[in-house]
């Protein structure tokens, strides 16, 4: 497997575009399109929030009950959530307009929205945006980048990545883009993500692969404990790589799933690192666990602890907050056997052994915690299972951003 430049246009047959459609104030890119030259089998995972935005409901129906998808329309600025029948009708209208311009079936168009909850979509802008997007569709890396920029809200950087690998001597590509900075919390899926691949694979196995990968990537990310109404990850596969179609769980399936996990891990980490107001990516590894479930529970509890996140912002090795978060997680373990470490590019330091603080250097600990990427490792010494979660520090700017979000 090899990392490469690009995102949603890296795989064969995929085009994209991103423009300013006037949904946001100012000349800011706020509308994106992804298009495949050939119909794709599609898979998706969606928010577990009971309050689901209209695009989520539309895409769930299309992904789960329709055989193919060929285009995705995404706007930023308005979430189309809590908008009733009118909001759902706007999803259908968006699909109708895009299908007409592209010359594809209406039920092959997926839609996504992100932004302010409760506002209705400005359909005039959206319709005009679709008309503008289609002529500038391109398979260039730059076009994928423009699309990645157009789906951003409070994100400070675009998020895209791609990899290539081989299946029986055939080069296959997986690429993706996502947006996410606030309202980020497991479980599923904590953002908008769009992944494209030219692999030839059955719809059933595509969905299973995505569902498994999401558990170890997006479901292990938390910024603020808020699960959005719009969380969606869509995966499109057009089969244009020319590999023998994957219809069973064999070596080809495993190679594809590994590449899919790599792409989505990179995107998930990018979301955590770009958490609203964040100054550091905070990674938590729980090792030596009795089971994967125990490791997941413990790592999530640590990475979501507001007190621990605040300590990371202050570069303070306040390990008691980590043990405390483990203690209320609901997972059973012996706190008198836990070892804790902090590590970063500046080094690695063991601070707790068997539940008791060691005589470590506070100065060295602060140096390690002052890096842009910081990892806490908790060894519970109960088995061989492990899990990794990602989050960020909690800063003053998080409150400022969310206090002024609508204004």
TrEMBL record:
Predominant location: cytoplasm
Catalysed conversion reaction: N(2)-acetyl-L-ornithine + L-glutamate = N-acetyl-L-glutamate + L-ornithine; L-glutamate + acetyl-CoA = N-acetyl-L-glutamate + CoA + H(+)
Pathway assigned in UniProt: Amino-acid biosynthesis; L-arginine biosynthesis; L-ornithine and N-acetyl-L-glutamate from L-glutamate and N(2)-acetyl-L-ornithine (cyclic): step 1/1; Amino-acid biosynthesis; L-arginine biosynthesis; N(2)-acetyl-L-ornithine from L-glutamate: step 1/4
Keyword Flavoprotein: no
Keyword Amino-acid biosynthesis: yes
Site (Involved in the stabilization of negative charge on the oxyanion by the formation of the oxyanion hole): residue numbering on this chain: 114-115
UniProt-annotated binding residues for substrate: 153, 179, 190, 276, 402, 407
Function of the molecule: Catalyzes two activities which are involved in the cyclic version of arginine biosynthesis: the synthesis of N-acetylglutamate from glutamate and acetyl-CoA as the acetyl donor, and of ornithine by transacetylation between N(2)-acetylornithine and glutamate.
Protein name in the entry: Arginine biosynthesis bifunctional protein ArgJ
Organism: Ruminococcus gauvreauii
